[in-house]
Every structure is written in structure tokens, then in C-alpha cells.
Design a protein that fits this description.
The complex is a heterodimer. Chain A is an alpha+beta fold. Chain A has helices at residues 25-40, 77-94; strands at residues 2-9, 14-19, 49-52, 55-62, 65-71, 118-119, 125-126. A 5-stranded antiparallel sheet of chain A has the order 2-1-5-4-3, sandwiched between helices. Chain A is globular. By secondary structure, chain B is of the alpha+beta class. Chain B is built from 38 helices and 18 strands. In chain B, strands 13, 14, 15, 16, 17 and 18 form a 6-stranded antiparallel sheet that branches. The longest helix of chain B is centred in the middle third of the chain and has 51 residues, at 619-669. Chain B is flat. The chains are: A alpha+beta, B alpha+beta. The interface between A and B is medium-sized, with 19 and 25 residues.
């Protein structure tokens, strides 16, 4: 079961957070900083799943933006991993102007691309 | 529209998560959602079903077919393309369905068979190389290994796991390891197949992969590979800093070490590592278990001593090391062990140990809790020491300590030290497991108390009683002088009603002071029949020897296996092998020892007794289990005895029934003509049933009057048409309630009554056809109720009711979970003259009281049971002066609540009852002035509260000054009034028994 959903940039600022289980506000900041710290400390060769306390973190990096999902241990990690990607695709579909500075890139959300992930209707707003 | 339905289902899911009971009535809606034509709504309902099936899979087995069909459609690409994700049809929906199927098919061959096909298809279809198909495959593998095994599927799943594990993609490798960990207990050979990969993962740069591998190894640990595995775990432990991981891993190491330790030295060293790394974050059970293991020992006494000696030596040297800080818990363990077992040391004298402990005590880095442990250790060692300079210094230093706890310990030591002989008796060597028997009843004070009492001191009241009295007195100043509060079991300081006889037995008239040996269980020299794993047959020691002999050939086999693999590798790869690889294979052979097919049994039963190094004696547990069995026996015997008692009393009932039947029939015929004499006989039913409950000693006059022959017995012109003819034969054997009309119309009248059978509640519905024509296809049905299990009794007659006749429908009702008030509803439908069918609904209230039966036990059993119950409710009630007599109160309760009076001792009364099927509840009454102290205990948490409520109702019934909530026919009522009530019950039938009748 998904416990929380976070979008955090490389500087450690939370851009979006959604909790599916009650967590006290002041504990959230602490949790978020710890979560992003453990995600940042990992390299590309390491797997995208982290054991953190009694739950698991599944993260994916899109340019400078991290999407982290916290789940309990009954969850299928790979399913969540793909779910994150699905989420990003939906965002891309929904906000048609989500794009990076380089328009030559076909899919702006590809992890390897150096693009900045942007979203917005009228004014393009950078998410990261 | 679809989105609204979907959101509604999701909202209901949230409701279900928060309060499952609140959505119970709309389960049918969930089924509707599952069958919704919109895929989204159906998918949303799966969340609810997954949850519900997780909690109780057996209730949803009938849905297996539906889930299988849905999955088939999804896998077959029947869903709209919108649901595809990278051309995979609804992957998360598939995963959800697979999970549900896994839960449904677990340990259930018949259900599993339904899903083999679709699982096979899922495995086959998911061959596309995309992450999301791997996710589906992983779930599929999980399901295949969860449901009842089928070899073809297992083979395919194993292949899948192989693919994952060998994949260069790190995420897939992780998934593969996770799957392996799950599967390994069922199929250890799979670990052998992938042993080289596992070894590689063990040295993987990614700590997460390492961790998952250790988890896997933990599952395959046995007596032969423990050292290697624990070494790997400790290595990991030293690297990691996160508390959660440390706590988790330390627990696992301690568990494995205790189970499979190869020798003493290794065990102690491993535990030392555990304590120093785990330190103060580990679970407190670990040091506790360790100390208990040391103290209680295992079967071999010399082995015990060696282990203890090794521990003492190891700690002795550890304390020698300068400038090392050990965690507090570790120091506590050390000081306890040194205090208890340093007598085993040959060279070192107790003085040396004390010196060392004293040095430790003075260090700054030690918490006061640990200091207390150390002083306790010093205290134990003092009687063994010859010179006591250091002890005296310690006493001097710590009797002025600011820490109260330490100061107290120091003073205790000081006083004991002054009387060395006494100290030696108090602190014997190596007796940590012996129970020290203390005269808890303080019987040696009896004489003193008696003297004080004779001089006018107030008797002791227990704390709760004092408090209750204080509360009941309100805030008025007390002008009474305070009483002396000396406890004495011989007089009034009773802890529990059970202690009444037991306590005084123990204390007797003894005037000994201090300690004394009593009859506690002696376990020495008694053959051990029960162990941790259950009954230990005599053969056990033999099998132990056999398996100890086994490992050698096993190892050979494994080595052969490894050799084969090596040779295979040789053939396939180059002939030369690097040194590194050889090392790895060596490690592999040591890790996967004992995993061959021969040892699978060993592995499957992970808690196998054979390879346990340290088998606990666990004295404590033994005695406990002994106690519970006796208490069980006791309850069982008490139940059987209760059935014995009942048949004696049936005699009275039979007697009664003859008269009663006639009487009632007569009544229904000539109700207007009834004289008051015959009316008194009507409550017979109830009264008689009460008699049956009571013990003979409590048959008081007003119960006996029932047996006077009715004066107008003549009127036995029994008419078959009367309602009462419908009273079943069963009523002659069991007590029952009054007949009560629940619904009627111009053609029929339905009445019901309850028969309180010993094992259940029997509801009887009498349908009386008032019309002159016969009724066809009469059918009575009960609506399912959540708290009850309703079963139709056989022998319900044909669906035709002749004119002016009565038919009975019987249902036995069992309670499934305790409740206070429940409603049983149902309907009857019938056809008149083949034309139209009529339906009539009715309902009846059931209370918990309907399921209360007397529990006939002896006073002694009462005492034992009393102590075994945890749920406890106390209440003080005020009684009017006239009601203060205990027997009358008890009798009232016995009659109204169907309780069994166990005993009356002075101003205390003991009662027992049980809630069907078998939840006992005990009651203790004490009259104190005009106060009645009620005390309930039961194994069920809600029962005491409920009974208390009922007792209060009955109290109101006793006390004429208080309002009467129950309109029962109590002695205070005039006969005319009773008659009125009965007329209203029987004729107008508008009044239910428990409705309030204003007086």
C-alpha cells in the first residue's frame, strides 16, 4: 500500500507531497529531508528501491526532479516503479506544454535527458 | 457517471479501512461494483476485495471464478485500449487480481485448480521485455508459490526467477532476490541452483542488494552453515549505521545463534558482538533470553557449566581492556553473569571480580541503572569473598549517593554485610533459578494483628475498598479516627475471594518469622515430558543422536553437488579458474551446506528440534503450561458436572409440566373466569426454570410453593386449538420464556418463545391459523443477523397449515460474538386458497442474557479460575437496609440472571456463569454495611460490564425505592396486577416482555 508520494528537487526542496497515512506536519519535513538524502546518495548502478525504516522507498529521477513513493513491504516494487513513470506520462499528456529547454528531445521525461522538467498551462513553470 | 460510481466505491473503501463494521450492510453493493460494466469501477472494487479477502479468505471463495474470468479477459486484451500501458493491458489491475487469487488459493487445492490456467496464461503472455511485465511476472511467481502447488507452474516460475536473478539490470536482480527469498522455504534446491549469483550479490556494492541477500541467507540457515552466514551478517552490521537495520539484524543473529550455535565459544563471542553492536537499541528480549538461557541451562549439566564458565572468562577479559566503552545493556549482562557465575573461576578470587566491578562502578560513562546491576552483582559476590575492604569502601561511598536507588542498594548491602551468615542463606551460590519462597500472607504477623484488634484497632481494608468507601462518602470530612492498616490474611486482608481458603491454609497458625519453604512445584528429577515444541517422546534423545551423526554424509553429498557444478563450469568455461572464483565456490559450498534434497525436511521445518544447540529447559514455561491444562481440565469437568446436576432437577420439571400444561390451556380458554388462585400458577414457567438453576441449598420457600398442586387442576378439557398446545415437548426438558405474539393478521397469528437449552438458545415460532381454510406453502424464514448463527432445526413440518391449527418452526440460535442487545427478524409467507401470497414480518429482541447459563463449579475451582482471568470490573452499590441480607440478593440474581451460586462465606458470595458457547464469568459479592461491592472477572472483556449492568437492573428489582426497569413479576406485585399483565401478554399480545410497564 502506498504511504506517501513525494516530488523533490535535487536541492532537497519538496515540490509536491501527498500522504495517504497521517503524519504530523513537523515530522513530514524531517521525513522528507531524510528521504531525499537517501535518494541523492545513490548512484545509477544501484537499484531504485531503498529500505527505509519499516517501509520501502521507490524513486525515479527525471532530470533534477526526484519522484519518491513510500510503500509498505507488501507492495510490488517494480509495479510502483512503473507507476511513477505512468504518472509522469499522464502529467505530460495532461499539461501539453510540459517540456524541457531542448525541444529536439522527443520525450522530455526520459531519465537520461538533461532537460529540465517543466509544467504549466500559460506560463511554463519549472518544476525543479 | 462511471467516474461517480468509481469515486463512490473508493470512498466506501476508505470507509471500510476506517470502520469495517459500518459498511457491512452494503457488501452486496461491492459485488455489484465488481460486476460493473465499467472497468474503472470494477478495478476500484478490487481494493476492497483484496482487503476483505486478506482478512477472511474463506468467505469469498465463491468469487474465485469471477476473478479468474476478469483476469482472463484482461490478459486476453479484452479491455479498451485506454487501459494499456506500453501495450500491456492494465498491468496494475493484473497485479491486483493476481494478489487476490494468491490469497484465495492458499492451502486450498480446489480453489487453486480453478486458477492454474489463467496463471499459466499470465506467465506466458508477460514475455515482453518491459519493466511492467516484470512486475506482473513477479506477482505471478508469488501467486504460483502461494497457491496449492502445481509442478508445471512451479517449474515455469522457477525459470522466471532465474531470469530475474541473472539479469544485469539491478532492479530486476533485486526483484529476483526478493522472489527467491519468498520461494526458498518451499524449494531450497532453487538456492543451490543460483548459489553463485547469491555469493556475488553478497559482495555487491549496493547495500540494498546485500541486505536482501542476507535476508535470503537468514531463511536457509542451518546448523552447518550458521558460522559463515552469521559472519556475513556481522560484517554488514558493522558497516551499517541505520538504527532500524541494526535492530532488525541483531535480532536475527541472536535468534540464529541461539538455535544453531555450533559450540560455546562461538555462541558467547557472537553474543558479545551482538551486545556491543546492538547495544542499547536492540530489543530487550535479546539480553533477557540470553541470561535466561545461561541461568536455566539445557539438558546437559556439564555443558551448562562450560558455557557459563566461558561467558565469565570472556567478560572478565573484556573488562580488562582499557578505554573501551560498552553499551549499558552489555555491561548489565556482564555484571549479572559475573555476579552469578564467577564462582566457577579457578584462579581469580571473588575479591578480584569485586575489584573489577568496583572500578566499573566508579566510571563516569555508566548509567545509574547499570550501577544498580553492578551493586547487585557485588552483593551476590560478597558472601563468597574472604576480605571485604572494597565492599566496605563501596558501602561507604554509596550510602551517601544522591541517587535514591543506589543508596537503597548500598544500605541493603550494608545491613546484609553485618550479618554474614544470614547473607549466605539469602544469596546462595548458583540458585538463580530456584524459586525463593516468601510467606506473602505475612502469617507471622497474625499474633500481632490479633493483639491489636483486641485492643480496638480497626481491621485492615484493601486499598480499593478504602478508595471506594472514600468515594461513596463524598467530600464530607471524616471524624472517625484512622484505623491501623496491618495486613493479615487470617483476618480480613483478602486479595481475592480465591485467597479466602488458600491464603489461610498456607499461613495456618504458624508464627515463624522470615522465609519458609512451602509446597511449590519441585521439578528436579522429574522426567521432562513437555518442551518448547510440545510433547517430547522418549525416542527423542535417540533421534537427536542420529541426526548428529548425519551431517557428515550430508556434507559429502553437498560437496559432490558442488563438485558437479564445478566440473560443469569447467567444461563450459575455460579450463583454468581464477583464484577468486575458487574462493567464491569455497564460500558457496560452506553457505549452501545442508541444502540438498536430503535435508529439505530439515529446512522446511525451520523450527526443527534436531539441530537446536541449546534446548531450553524452560522451567517457567513448563509450570505455566501445567497450570493451564489443569485449569482447562477443571472447566471441562465443571461443565460435565453441570450436566449431571441438571438431570436431577428435571424431575421437578416433569412434575410441573403436567400441571403447568393443563393450567395454561385452561387459562387460554377461560381467561375471563380465572380466579386469582390459578393465576399464581402462571408464572410457573419462569419460576420453575429458576429452580432448576439454583443449588438445592438455595431452594427457598417462595420457590417451593410452585410445587403445591394447583387447586383448579380439573379443567383439563384441553383444547387442541389453543396456543399453548403448541408448546413443544422440548419445553418439558428445558426452561423457556412465555409465549409471546410477535405479529398477526386476520388469518394467522405468530407467537414465539425462547427455550434456554444448555448448549444454545432455541427459538420456537408458533404459527396459528385462525381462519377456517387451510394455508398453503407456508414458509418461515429468518433474516441473517450479524451476531448470530441461526440454524433451522429439523422436523419443521409440511408447508400446509390446516384450518385452526398450529405449526411450529424451530431455530437454534448461537451467538457468534458478544453483544448486548440483538434483533432477530424474519418473515412468514403463505398462500390463501391458491390465490395470493401474503407476507408477514416480525422481529424479536435477544439479549445477552439469553445466552447466559449457570456455571457449576466448586469453590476451589472458582479460586483457580478467578486468578486466571484478566478482565476485571468492580462496582459499589448502595442497598436499602432491608435488602442488606446477602442470601436474598444472591437468590434474586440467581433467578434473574441465571447465575450459579458457588458459595457463600460470611458476608461474601461467589457466583459463576458462562456465556454460550463457553466463556466463563465469575462474580464476587461482598456486603459491607449497606454497601454491596460487586466484582466481576472473565476471560471476555465485555462480559463483566454487561453483567454488571444486568445486576444493577436486578438490584433495582430488589430495592423497592428505586425505579423498576424490568417489568418482571416480582413478589411485591399484587395478584390482580399480574393477572392484568398476563391478560395483556396473552390476549392483546401487544406487550413484549421487556417493555416498560409503568407501575
Amino acid at each position: 500500500m502506498i504511504k506517501f508520494f513525494l516530488m523533490v528537487n535535487k536541492q532537497g526542496q519538496t515540490r509536491l507531497s501527498k500522504y495517504y497515512e497521517h503524519v504530523e506536519i513537523n515530522k513530514r519535513t524531517l521525513l522528507e529531508t531524510e528521504v531525499i538524502k537517501s535518494c541523492l546518495s545513490r548512484s545509477n548502478e544501484q537499484c531504485s528501491f531503498i529500505e527505509y525504516k519499516d517501509f520501502k522507498l521507490i524513486y525515479r529521477q527525471y532530470a533534477a526532479l526526484f519522484i519518491v513513493v513510500g510503500v509498505n513491504d507488501t507492495e510490488n516494487e517494480m509495479a510502483i516503479y512503473e507507476f511513477i513513470h505512468n504518472f509522469v506520462e499522464v502529467l505530460d499528456d495532461y499539461f501539453s506544454r510540459v517540456s524541457g529547454p531542448s525541444h529536439t528531445q522527443a520525450s522530455p521525461y526520459r531519465a537520461a535527458s538533461p532537460t529540465c522538467f517543466q509544467a504549466g498551462n500559460q506560463s511554463s513553470r519549472c518544476l525543479c | 457517471m462511471e467516474i461517480i460510481r468509481r469515486k463512490a466505491v473508493l470512498a466506501l473503501y476508505k470507509f471500510y479501512l476506517i470502520a469495517p463494521n459500518q459498511v457491512q450492510h452494503i457488501h452486496i453493493k461491492f459485488r455489484k461494483a465488481l460486476c460493473d460494466r465499467d472497468v474503472g469501477v470494477m478495478a476500484a472494487s478490487l481494493h476492497i476485495y483484496l482487503r476483505m479477502i486478506k482478512e477472511n479468505s474463506s468467505a469469498y471463495k465463491d468469487l474465485t471464478g469471477s476473478f479468474v474470468t476478469i483476469l482472463k479477459q484482461v490478459v486476453g486484451g479484452k479491455l479498451p485500449v485506454d487501459f494499456n500501458y506500453h501495450s500491456v493491458p492494465a498491468p496494475w489491475l493484473q497485479i491486483q487480481l493476481l494478489r487476490i487469487l494468491g490469497l484465495l488459493g492458499k492451502d486450498d487445492q480446489r480453489t487453486s485448480e480453478l486458477m492454474y490456467d489463467v496463471l499459466d496464461e499470465s506467465l506466458r503472455r508477460a514475455e515482453l521485455n518491459h519493466n511492467v511485465t516484470y512486475a506482473i511476472l513477479f506477482e505471478c511467481v508469488h501467486t504460483v508459490y502461494s497457491v496449492y502447488p502445481k509442478s508445471e507452474l512451479l517449474e515455469k516460475a522457477a525459470k522466471c526467477i532465474g531470469k530475474f536473478v541473472l539479469s544485469p539490470k539491478i532492479n530486476l536482480k533485486y526483484l529476483g532476490l526478493k522472489a527467491l527469498t519468498y520461494v526458498i522455504q518451499q524449494d531450497p534446491t532453487l538456492a543451490l541452483q543460483h548459489q553463485m549469483t547469491i555469493i556475488e550479490c553478497l559482495d555487491h556494492p549496493d547495500p540494498i542488494i546485500k541486505r536482501e541477500t542476507l535476508e535470503l541467507l537468514y531463511r536457509i540457515t542451518n546448523a552447518q552453515n550458521i558460522t559463515v552466514i552469521v559472519q556475513k551478517m556481522l560484517e554488514y552490521l558493522h558497516q551499517s549505521k541505520e538504527e532500524y537495520i541494526i535492530v532488525n539484524l541483531v535480532g536475527k543473529i541472536a535468534e540464529l545463534a541461539e538455535k544453531y550455535a555450533p559450540d560455546n565459544a562461538w555462541f558467547i563471542q557472537t553474543m558479545n558482538a551482538v551486545f556491543s553492536v546492538g547495544g542499547d537499541v536492540m530489543h530487550p528480549d535479546i539480553p533477557n533470553n540470553f541470561l535466561r538461557l545461561l541461568a536455566e541451562g539445557f539438558d546437559d549439566e556439564t555443558e551448562n557449566q562450560q558455557l557459563r564458565l566461558y561467558a565469565v572468562q570472556s567478560y572478565f577479559t573484556l573488562l580488562d581492556v582499557e578505554n573501551v566503552f560498552y553499551p549499558q545493556r552489555f555491561l548489565q549482562v556482564m555484571s549479572w553473569v559475573l555476579g552469578e557465575y564467577s564462582y566457577l573461576l579457578d584462579k581469580e578470587t571473588p575479591e578480584e571480580v569485586i575489584t573489577k566491578l568496583y572500578k566499573l562502578l566508579r566510571s563516569d560513562s555508566i548509567s545509574s541503572e547499570t550501577k544498580a546491576w553492578i551493586i547487585a552483582a557485588v552483593t551476590k559476590l560478597t558472601p563468597q569473598a574472604h576480605s571485604s575492604n572494597i565492599v566496605e569502601r563501596l558501602i561507604q561511598e554509596f550510602t551517601t549517593s544522591l541517587d535514591t536507588c543506589l543508596r537503597q542498594h548500598a544500605f541493603e548491602l550494608k545491613h546484609l554485610h553485618e550479618n554474614v551468615k544470614f547473607m549466605k542463606g539469602l544469596l546462595p551460590v548458583d540458585k538463580s533459578c530456584e524459586d525463593m519462597v516468601v510467606d506473602a500472607s505475612l502469617s507471622f504477623l497474625d499474633g500481632f494483628v490479633a493483639e491489636e484488634l483486641s485492643q480496638g484497632a480497626a481491621p485492615y481494608k484493601p486499598h480499593h475498598q478504602r478508595q471506594e468507601e472514600k468515594l461513596s462518602q463524598g467530600k464530607v470530612l471524616s471524624f472517625e479516627p484512622y484505623g491501623l492498616s496491618f495486613s493479615s490474611s487470617g483476618f480480613s486482608g483478602r486479595q481475592s475471594p480465591a485467597g479466602i481458603s488458600l491464603g489461610s491454609d498456607i499461613s495456618g497458625n504458624s508464627t515463624d518469622t522470615g522465609l519458609k519453604e512451602t509446597n511449590s512445584l519441585k521439578l528436579e528429577g522429574i522426567k521432562k515430558l513437555w518442551g518448547k515444541e510440545g510433547y517430547l517422546p522418549k525416542k527423542e534423545s535417540k533421534t537427536g543422536e542420529e541426526t548428529e551423526a548425519l551431517p557428515v554424509p550430508q556434507e559429502n553429498i553437498i560437496m559432490e553437488n558442488v563438485d558437479q557444478i564445478i566440473t560443469k563450469n569447467d567444461q563450459s568455461q575455460a579450463l583454468t579458474q581464477s583464484k577468486e572464483e575458487k574462493e567464491k565456490q569455497l564460500l558457496a559450498s560452506s553457505l549452501f551446506v545442508g541444502l540438498g534434497s536430503e535435508s529439505t525436511i530439515n529446512l522446511l521445518g525451520k523450527a526443527d528440534t534436531l539441530s537446536h544447540k541449546f534446548r531450553r529447559k524452560s522451567k517457567v514455561k513448563e509450570t505455566k503450561s501445567g497450570q493451564t491444562t489443569t485449569s482447562q481440565n477443571m472447566t471441562r469437568s465443571s461443565f460435565s458436572s453441570s450436566s449431571n446436576v441438571t438431570y436431577e432437577e428435571d424431575y421437578y420439571l416433569d412434575n410441573f409440566q403436567d400441571r403447568g400444561d393443563k393450567e395454561v390451556k385452561k387459562f387460554s380458554l377461560n381467561s375471563e373466569l380465572l380466579d386469582s388462585e390459578s393465576l399464581t400458577e402462571l408464572p410457573l414457567v419462569e419460576k420453575i426454570s429458576n429452580c432448576r438453576l439454583s443449588t438445592p441449598s438455595l431452594f427457598a420457600d417462595n420457590n417451593m410453593e410452585v410445587f403445591h398442586p394447583p387447586q383448579s387442576a380439573a379443567a383439563s378439557v384441553a383444547n387442541e386449538i389453543s396456543l399453548t398446545s403448541s408448546l413443544l415437548e422440548e419445553t418439558t426438558e428445558h426452561m423457556h420464556s412465555d409465549l409471546m405474539e410477535v405479529c398477526n393478521n386476520e388469518t394467522i397469528s405468530v407467537s414465539s418463545y425462547k427455550i434456554w437449552k444448555d448448549e444454545c438458545l432455541l427459538m420456537v415460532w408458533s404459527v396459528f391459523n385462525k381462519s377456517a381454510s387451510e394455508l398453503k406453502s407456508a414458509n418461515l424464514e429468518m433474516a441473517p443477523a450479524e451476531n448470530f448463527k441461526i440454524t433451522e432445526q429439523p422436523g419443521c413440518c409440511l408447508p400446509v397449515i390446516e384450518a385452526e391449527s398450529t405449526k411450529n418452526f424451530q431455530y437454534s440460535v448461537q451467538m457468534e460474538k458478544p453483544f448486548t442487545e440483538g434483533n432477530l427478524s424474519g418473515f412468514i409467507n403463505y398462500q390463501v386458497m391458491d390465490t395470493h401470497s401474503v407476507q408477514l414480518e416480525f422481529s424479536v429482541n435477544l439479549s445477552l442474557l439469553d445466552f447466559i447459563r449457570p456455571l457449576k463449579i466448586s469453590t476451589e475451582d472458582f479460586g483457580k479460575l478467578w486468578l486466571s482471568f484478566a478482565n476485571d470490573v468492580k462496582q459499589n452499590v448502595k442497598m436499602s437496609e432491608s435488602q442488606a441480607a446477602l442470601p436474598s440478593t444472591l437468590k434474586a440474581l440467581q433467578q434473574e440472571l441465571r447465575l450459579h451460586v458457588v458459595d457463600i462465606i460470611g458476608n461474601e458470595g461467589l457466583l459463576a456463569c458462562q456465556l454460550l458457547p463457553s466463556i466463563p464469568c465469575l462474580l464476587h459479592f461482598r456486603v459491607h454495611g449497606d454497601m454491596l461491592a460487586l466484582w466481576f472477572r472473565s476471560s471476555c472483556s465485555t462480559l463483566p460490564d454487561y453483567l454488571l449492568y444486568q445486576c444493577q437492573k436486578v438490584r433495582a428489582w430488589i430495592d423497592p425505592q428505586l425505579p423498576v426497569p424490568i417489568p418482571c413479576f416480582h413478589p411485591g406485585m399484587t395478584r390482580a396486577f399480574k393477572a392484568e399483565c398476563f391478560v395483556s401478554v396473552f390476549l392483546s399480545s401487544r406487550c413484549k416482555k421487556h417493555d416498560y410497564i409503568p407501575l
